[in-house]
Write a structure and sequence with these properties.
Layout: E1 10-14, E2 17-21, E3 40-42, E4 50-51, E5 64-66, E6 74-75, E7 89-91, E8 111-113, E9 119-121, H1 123-131, E10 133-134, E11 144-147, H2 157-160, H3 166-212, H4 216-230
Length: 231
């Protein structure tokens, strides 16, 4: 019943499709009592900060999902589970997304709008862009708000990756870090061996000086004992 819907939400029928509108309804989470035969869902212009796992699992007939103009900064893996077969339009523009795992959109066939978010341009975003099917005309709005390379800030991400492979740079950095670590361990081992040899040499020198300081008979006995021990 209409009384069960959140304030500002209402169902309607548009062009033969069952629509549920919650635009500008001051929502802080995805409503739970959305009719499960909804084809188009509008949750735009609200205050939703987070999309949890299985947020839309009870909407198997959903074709269009508009989540634009919210404050979404985190999308849990599995948030769109259950929508893979029918969903053909997903709008996440004008939110606060900085970094999202590529697995979040796995198996989705929908055209996705990711423009106007404060993206961190790095390997993770590069892998995400290669995974999703971007909505027409939205790619230019994916800008580098921050980046692993300062010179890319303020530029369109697709323009940046035309010349820069973030994932390859990351791999090289990781390889260098591993080499530095291995060299550090190797240097420690060599230092220890050098210290050990020098310490033994010092002990041997002291022992010889001690033997020289003994009376000749006792010294011969000590030397004989030392040689016997060595043998």
């Amino acid at each position: 019943s209409a009384a069960a819907f959140p304030k500002g939400c209402y169902p309607s029928e548009e062009e033969g499709l069952k629509t549920f509108r919650c635009s500008n309804a001051r929502l802080t989470e995805v409503p739970r009592d959305i009719p499960n035969d909804t084809n188009k869902l509008y949750l735009d212009s609200n205050r939703i900060p987070f999309l949890p796992r299985d947020a839309f699992q009870d909407l198997p007939l959903l074709l269009e999902l508009d989540l634009s103009h919210n404050v979404i900064s985190s999308v849990e893996s599995g948030a769109f589970r259950g929508l893979a077969e029918n969903l053909h339009s997903l709008d996440l523009s004008s939110n606060r997304l900085v970094s999202v795992s590529k697995d979040t959109f796995s198996n989705l066939k929908a055209k996705v709008n990711l423009s106007d978010n404060p993206w961190l341009c790095d390997c993770r975003l590069q892998e995400l862009i290669r995974t999703v099917d971007l909505a027409a005309g939205s790619s230019g709005g994916i800008m580098c708000d921050s980046s692993t390379q300062e010179e890319h800030v303020g530029k369109a991400f697709l323009q940046v990756i035309a010349d820069t492979d973030f994932c390859n740079v990351y791999k090289k950095t990781t390889d260098i870090a591993m080499l530095v670590t291995m060299f550090g361990w190797f240097a420690m081992v060599i230092s220890y061996l050098v210290y050990y040899v020098r310490q033994n040499q010092e002990d041997a020198r002291r022992h010889l000086e001690y033997l020289k300081s003994l009376p000749s008979k006792q010294r011969r006995s000590e030397e004989s004992s030392t040689i016997s021990t060595v043998v």
